Description:
The protein is an alpha/beta fold. 47% of the residues lie in helices and 12% in strands. It has helices at residues 27-33, 54-63, 78-91, 109-117, 128-142, 150-154, 162-179, 185-196, 198-202; strands at residues 3-6, 19-22, 43-47, 68-70, 95-98, 119-122. The strands form two sheets. A four-stranded parallel beta sheet has the order 4-5-3-6, sandwiched between helices. It starts with a strand and ends with a helix.
Amino acid sequence: xxxxxxxxxxxxxxxxxxxxxxxxxxxxxxxxxxxxxxxxxxxxxxxxxxxxxxxxxxxxxxxxxxxxxxxxxxxxxxxxxxxxxxxxxxxxxxxxxxxxxxxxxxxxxxxxxxxxxxxxxxxxxxxxxxxxxxxxxxxxxxxxxxxxxxxxxxxxxxxxxxxxxxxxxxxxxxxxxxxxxxxxxxxxxxxxxxxxxxxxxxxx
Length: 204
């Protein structure tokens, strides 16, 4: 069953805490982040789809004070990144590199060889159980009360992605507030149509 990690350093304006849902798609990565001393050269590279919580995991890793995390590592200057890797090696500090997008084309040979030897972690596609937990987590974060049967209705019809679930819950919340009604099946259906299109929604 999915669990949640609460970020102790979170100070959102609404007073809530950022939470990371842990399920089939990321549980191996989360487990590996807990044992950084076992990583090859104490270095790991974390990749995954948009909105999958990579940055939140980097924040959590930093908060555990088990090493250093560099978010968006593939957007940084390669020479500077290689310098930071060397410094981490000298200090004996584990280093987590979070990358965005698909693949990481590295031009600098020395950096490429070091990253190739690092532990490769990837967040995958959430299964139905994790999708349900993500819907609940996003709804709770918004203070949105989903009506009875919401998960049974939404999970089989929702897009199988982190970003898709986030958009869906946001749309349900928007429609519920706009219409000043509870988030029940008519709202869920219209939110699905708005996100996936009438033709796609009609097939579900």
